[in-house]
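Ticket #4471: structure export looks truncated?
Reporter: QA, pipeline team
Priority: medium

Steps to reproduce: submit the single chain below to the structure queue and open the exported record.
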Amino acid sequence: MDPITGLTRGGVEWVPQFVLELDGAKCIGCGRCYKVCPRDVFDLVEREEDELDDDLDDDNMMVMTIANGLDCIGCGSCARVCPKGCHTHGPAAVTA
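Actual output as written to the record:
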């Protein structure tokens, strides 16, 4: 299958990179990806019990998760603002 492609305003072909995964172990719950996302793809949730460390303070009790991954438009803004590199992106294939 071919990846979904688009065109820039200048007419150059562009392959959007959609969010595929978010590494909750690396996430510090800063909310930057949530704030920059134009499509409400992310949600802030409490960390799972098995993810909690004794040395975590109250600020690290929350973590981002992908709530509406199919709403991602492939802009990559979330990855550019993430200080920990938590996001994994890739092209989406056209389905017949």
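Status: closed, not a bug. The export was complete when the record was re-opened. Leaving a note from the reviewer for reference: The domain at 6-90 is CATH 3.30.70.20 (Alpha-Beta Plaits).
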